[in-house]
Amino acid sequence: MHRATLRLRVLAALPHVLALTGYLLFLALRWDRLPDTLATHFGADGGRADGFTGRTAFAFVSTALLLTLGAGWTALVQRGSLWGAWATAGFTGALLVLLVRDNVDATDPALVESSLTVPLLALASAALLGLTGLALTRTVPRTAPTGAVAGPDAPRLPLGASEIAGWSRATASRTLTVLAALALAATPFVLLLAPWPGALLGLLGLLIGLPGLALARVRVSVDRRGLTVRSALLARPRVRIPLDEVAGAAVRTLDTAAVLSQFGGWGYRVRAHRTGVIVRTGEALVVRRDSGREFAVTVPDAGTAAALLNTLAERHGKV
């Protein structure tokens, strides 16, 4: 793994480790002073509790939430979004600690009250840690361009003058599928929290889970319209490169080190000189565009796709 990428992932994981450690320590020190059932949902005006969760269940759900957020940020973080990892850890950790604090020494969970200062304090914690993450971004070197991803253009696929051909394959990522499923599965549980914090965390789960699920399985097609990459589950997102923008297509094998150094991770990636839909290691179809940028998508049988795309672009008068 590239040293800069390793440092970035360590810095993305660090705030979640600190938040989880601090929260679990606080929870352990207050465990005997907590009721068997905790107040975990409050009226929109802050008021008394109107939703409850067992003490043990709450401990498991809150721990799983912090672990899931940490794993997601560590796997998908980019240099420019490091501050988001720190802000998320700060908000979630502070919210959980404050929620536990409100339940300490409660004799009747139904009488527990939570003021509107709780989400404000959580947001303040998010802002403070977000600024910390922003400052730490400077310690992560920018990944220098590594030159062209693609090698020589793939050979043409022989086609008669009147022949029409198309190619299509699906490719999937188990890692993205698991992370997206965990984020979506955690969403109903975080809604047990107070309305505004719960809504914000629920929105965060959807923002992580839905795009992740959409990119977990994609279909790659090459035909007379050019290259199309779309989610196999949803109509969007979709990437289309028409034939008149194709300068050439080639195949490159991407291992984990290449994925991290050239694209910064998995998913839909945008870098200085290239973009890509990277859902796995292995063969990648790489398309050079007229603009000089490259687009890559990891898919089996990329050689056939590249050869056909070159043939169709040549017919179109491009290659």
What would your notes on this structure say?
The chain is α+β, with helices and mostly antiparallel strands. The chain contains 8 helices and 11 strands. The strands form 3 sheets. A 5-stranded mixed beta sheet has the order 7-10-11-9-8, with helices on both faces. A 4-stranded antiparallel beta sheet has the order 3-4-5-6. Helix 2 (55-76) runs antiparallel to helix 5 (174-190) and helix 5 runs antiparallel to helix 6. The longest helix is centred in the N-terminal third of the chain and has 28 residues, at 3-30. Mean pLDDT is 81; it is low at 144-149.
Short descriptors:
319 residues; four-stranded antiparallel beta sheet; 48% helix; alpha+beta
In short:
The protein is α+β, with helices and mostly antiparallel strands and 319 residues long. It is built from eight helices and eleven strands.
